[in-house]
Amino acid sequence: MHLYKSQNLFANENIELVLCSAVCFFVPFLMGHPQFFVGTIVNAALVLAAMSMNEARLLPLMVVPSLGVLCRGLVFGPYTPLLVYMIPFIWLGNAILVFAVRALSVKMNRNKWLSLGTGAVLKSVFLFTVAFIFVSVGVLPAIFLTTMGLFQLYTATAGGIVAFGAMALKGKYL
Fold first, then answer.
1. Per-residue pLDDT band at 6 (split at 50, 70, 90)
2. Closest Cα to residue 22, out of 42, 52, 48, 43?
């Protein structure tokens, strides 16, 4: 019976990984706009995954959203090719959010709202700092400061609120 539970858990984690990966890639790829809505959905999937998956399964989720955006090629209009400079840092920003939420809330059993706030602030400060450096040296246009600053804070926070709401509904009805 213990082996059955272990296999069932593994299957559920695989299904959850596929679903979260699909959301993280296809929402930016298929929708593209409005950016606030797309960013909120992607961040909700990231926070949900952070709360329920082990670390190894989280890694692909940090990469696929920016690949969806890049494949779509419309989010920044003529600036989309410049997004390539930011992609590794977006991956790190997603990792900061996911691992901050996971470490504080799941591993250290801290308040989930404090965990979300900490992760969202760290992600947005990191991405804004990188964008600021690139803008300062003339690699990126100033529009990136808006999208990689407060906008990241708003979408990460809104995504976390959606994720926590979905978790509460799941717990109530399942």
1. low
2. 42
54 torsion bin: left (phi>0), alpha (psi -120 to 50), beta (else): beta
Q: State the total domains in the chain.
A: 1
| 82: DSSP letter | G
Domain containing 14 equals 2-173
How do residues 42-82 score in pLDDT, each as one tens digit?
999 999 888 888 787 888 888 888 888 777 775 566 666 77
**b/e for 129-164, b at 16 or more Cβ within 10 A?**
ebbbebbeeeebeeebbebbbebbbbbbbbbbbbbb
pLDDT in tens, 98-132: 999 999 988 888 889 999 999 999 999 999 999 99
Distance, CA of 55 to CA of 33 (rounded, Å):
30
Burial class (CB in 10 A: 0-12, 13-18, 19+), 41: buried
pTM of the model: 0.84
